[in-house]
Structures are given as structure tokens and as C-alpha cells.
Amino acid sequence: MSGCRRARAAWIAVLVFMTLATAAAEKVPGTVVAEFSTDLKTPMGLTWDGDRLWLADLESATLSAVNPSTGRIERTLEAPGYQPMGLAWDGKVLWVVDGAEKTAYAVDPASGLTVRSLPLDTDAPEGIGWDGAALWTLDARGSGLVRVDRNDGTTFRSFPCPTCGPGRRGQGIGLAFDGRCLFVSDRTTDAIYRVDPGTGAVLDQFPSPGPYPTGLAWDGAHLWCADFETRKLYRLSVDRRAPYVRRSPKKESVVYREAWRNFGPGTVKTLDVYIAVPQDLPNQTLLAPPRFTPEPHGFVTDRWGQRCAHWRFRDVGPGQEVRASMEVLAELYQVRWFVDPERVGSLSEIPEEIRRTYTQNNSKLVLDDPVIRRAVEEALGGEKNPFWMAWKINRHIQEKMHYELVGGWNVAPTVLSRGSGSCSEYTFVMLAMCHAAGLPARYAGSVVIRGDDASRDDVFHRWVEVYLPNYGWFPVDPSGGDSPVPAESAAFFGGLDNRFLITTLGAGDSETLGWDYNSNAAWTAMGRVKVQQWKDGLWSPSGKKSEPRPVGTPGGLSCEPGTGD
Fold first, then answer.
1. Are residues 208 and 345 in the same domain?
2. pLDDT class of 144 with cuts at 50, 70, 90
3. Which one of 216, 238, 260 terminates a domain?
């Protein structure tokens, strides 16, 4: 890759990052724009009838019409059962799920009469919604999200609710439809999930405004959420103009070290060590320039634009040890990307330089192997939307593989055929499938906080970033998100925790790092030598942790770091 082409690709990346950073200050899903207290002690299901909200109360077994401008209760109906949970409006009647009877009742709000009953073939029905043509029920214990015929209860489609998995039940009650997607609340995770009704994919997630979210309702412009604990109704913006939000900042210092010992009897004549230099990214802000010990001989940049500090040690004799280290002080963030698949551009809209650079064949990818070609066809079919291409490739890999940390990094076709691999091998497979499909992808390599903020990492972690036109680079962690629980898997599709310092961005066969990340080394020797290498990252919290400071109204989710110490 020439210097001019590399400069253009770097300029495009900087421009996208600046655009995203500016947009991140806008509203993000979950921003509270209004809130009202309610006199009801146990608010549960919630729906919108076109003019007002209806709220179910468990203790009084009532359905209350609520003025959306004032939060005042205007009238109250007796519920058709003693355990009203979910509520939905189909344009004519209120549908009320009764948890004890496992039945959905149709109630005429004008007269208060129950006009129909629909037994539900689920274990623990709690939520109910209407998508314009059919009912959706939420069974947190067994069936998950189920689309049913309102006339006879016939099941059209079902898939797990976001937080359901083997041996695990969710705690969802709220269910709403905005014309395109379902929203599902869960009280144990204190989160609201946006779910694609065709695939069951969790498209994004954001914190609920209160600690016990129950009912959800869509009024045509905003999402409403009832909270059991605060006894409030919240009106939320779910605008996704801001492509990501940063939360939970914390200041950390990490010393990344690479050491080599020569056990002899010969001499290591030259030892070249390269340590990748991190940069500001959505998940991290460097608070000071990195410090290097000893002073490196210089800095070099590889074909991907990755800058590395370079040390050259000479004549390392028997019994001698040499070290190179980099100390980084940074603020790390939890980051959640918000991508609307319908706003993602086409493959043809990807800048040519990025497309050419990040769809190349490399030594670990082997794009022309039949295993890779067959996997791409099986995963994608005729899919052309870059977002869904990434989602389907990621899901295909997780269905075919399981995590196993073993020595060595095999090529992508071998890993996929074997059906197991480390984070790097998952990454190789996804890079290969994305590149073969024409979707630009690279990897991000990192040093990881392991448990406590003061910790040591000698395992590290790597994942994939795919390029989505109109959004830029989007993180996908196929190994981290390999979970049968949809919400857990989705947390790694467009999400990063605040425990990663990304040092390396690339796509393999680097002149300095090869297929490694964080650091790499090469040596020559005179005579017989036994050389031992070790590398790690030592983490320590730096001063007082910053606390997220809400921007806008109480409960707002767009945060900026506190001042700390």
C-alpha cells in the first residue's frame, strides 16, 4: 500500500471518527423527555390507544386511562381478571394478559365490557403487543416472544426473548411495536431491547429509566415506560441519530511490558521489539502521551496505518534479559453503537480506498478456499445490506463454532472446519467471510482489565470491526458474543465494555506485527540459544473513578465524564 493511499485511508478514518464524535452529543435511545408520578401502587402493562395511555395496576386489578400531557388518571376500568399484566391496543379493543388465567382478554374501553377471551399456549404470559396485523405475547419462562393470531391463538412465529436462554428465564413484561421493531423491557437487567420481529435479533439496547421497568407503549413518536419501583411513567426518545453513546468512564493506567531472556549458550545478535501505540477511539481517550522505557530507537507505521514503537537490542549474552515497556494513562468507556439497518448505505457507497484495503486476501484468510466460499453462501443467501451481512456472518460463526483456547493460530478454513478456536481464530474466520463477501473488515487488538481494576493481563483479546457505510467502523466480537442468550450475544454486536485498551488496528500480515497484536518481536542468534519471551499488561486505577454525568433531562443517557481527581 503506497504512502499516498495509506494517507487517504487514514484521512477517511479520521473524518468518520470526527463525524461520529460530533453526532454522539445528540440524543440517544433512552433519553428521558418527560416523566410523571402515578398514584397506582403496582403499575404493570402499558399501551397507547391513539389519544391516551392505558396502565394496568396489579394490586387493584384495574385499567386506568392516563392523560399523556399531565399524567393524571382520567377514568378507571375493572380488569377482566385478578392478575392483569400486559396491555395492548389493536385499534378497537384493549387486550389484557392475565398471568393467573394465562389468557388474553379483549376489553371494549368505551363500555368496559369484556368481549372476548383468548387462551394462550404459554407457561407464564406477561407482556402483550400489537403489530398492526397480529398479537405478540411475551412468555419469560418458556416460549419467549410469540406472534399469534388474535382470532384463534395460532402461532405464526416465535423466538427467545432477549434475556431468555437454556435454564434461564427472563423477567420481561413490557412489549411495544413502533411500526418496524419490537421493544422489550427486562427488570433484572434494567434494560430495554429493540428486537427485529423477523429474525429475533436484538438490534440495540439501552438502560431503562427506572430500576424495575414494566409496561411499554409507543405513541407514534416516543416510547413510554412504566416503572414498578418508582411508580412513574417515563416518555423516552428512541432517536438513533447519534451513532453511539459513551457511559461509565474510568481512568486507568496500564504498563504493557515485553521481556526476553537468553538462556544461552550462544548470543542473541539482534532483537527487534515492536509495541503498538494506541490512539483516541470511541472507547478510549488518552490522557497523556504514552511513555516508553527505555527510549525506543524510533517509530514505524505498517501497511494498515498502525504506529509502533521500535527497539533494537544487540548482543544479548547468556543469562541476560532485556525489556521494553509502554505506559498509557487513559479514560475508558462503555460504548454502545446505535445503527438503523435501513439507514446503512449499500456496499457500493463504501469509499473505494477502504473497500480495496480491507477486503484483501491474506495468509490466514485463504478466501478462495471452498470452505469459506460455502460458508458465505450458506450464511448470507442473497443478503446485500452490510448490517445484516455482518449480523448473519456473526451468527453463522457462532452456530458452527465454540470457544477453545489452544496453542497456535490456524488459517480460517481449518478453524471453521474444526469448529473451535480462540478469539483470534474466531476473528480470522469472520475476516475471511466478510472479505470474501465484499464487506470491509479489520481487527482490533487490546489489553484487557481482568476482573479488578488493578489486575494483570497476559491473555489479551481481539475482535472484528466491519465498515458500515453512513456509520463507519462497527465492533463485532464473535467469540465474546457466542452465547445462547440473545441479549448477551447482542452486547458484543455493536458494544464495548470499559475494560479494553485498543492498541492495534489492522488486518494481518503487518510488516511489524505480523498477525500478532499489542506487540511482536524478531531475533537473530549466533550459535545455539534458548530464548524465552513473556509479555503482559499491568493495570492500576488512576485516582478517583469518574462518574457519568447526565446530559439533558433527569435520566438522560448521553453522558460525559466527571472531573475525577
1. no
2. confident
3. 238
pTM over 0.85: yes
Judgement on whether residues 197 and 78 belong to the same structural domain of the protein: yes
Task: For 25-36, give the DSSP string.
Answer: TS--TTEEEEEE
Nearest to 90 by CA among 71, 60, 115: 115
Cβ atoms of 35 and 555 closer than 8 Å = yes
Distance of CA 39 to the CA centre of its chain: 37
pLDDT at 122: 82
228 and 319 in a single domain? The answer is no
In sequence order, the β-bridge partners of residue 545 are none
Q: 448 has which bridge partners?
A: 500
The CA radius of gyration of the chain, in Å to the nearest whole number, is 27
The residues pairing with 77 across neighbouring beta strands, listed in sequence order, are 63
CATH code for the domain of 196? 2.130.10.10
Amino acid occupying residue 127 = G
Domain residue limits at 358: 1-25+248-531
Is the CB of residue 253 less than 8 Å from the CB of residue 476?
A: no
- State whether 180 and 137 are in the same domain: yes
Grid coordinates 498477525 are at which residue? Answer: 515
For residues 12 and 58, state if they share a domain: no
Where do the DSSP E strands lie in 219-283?
223-227, 232-237, 244-276
For the segment 163-180, what is each residue's pLDDT rounded down to a tens digit?
876 655 556 679 999 999
Cα 339 from chain centroid? Answer: 11
Please write the tens of the pLDDT for every residue from 111-120.
Answer: 999 999 999 9
* C-alpha torsion angle, residues 73, 74, 75, 80 (rounded to 10): -50
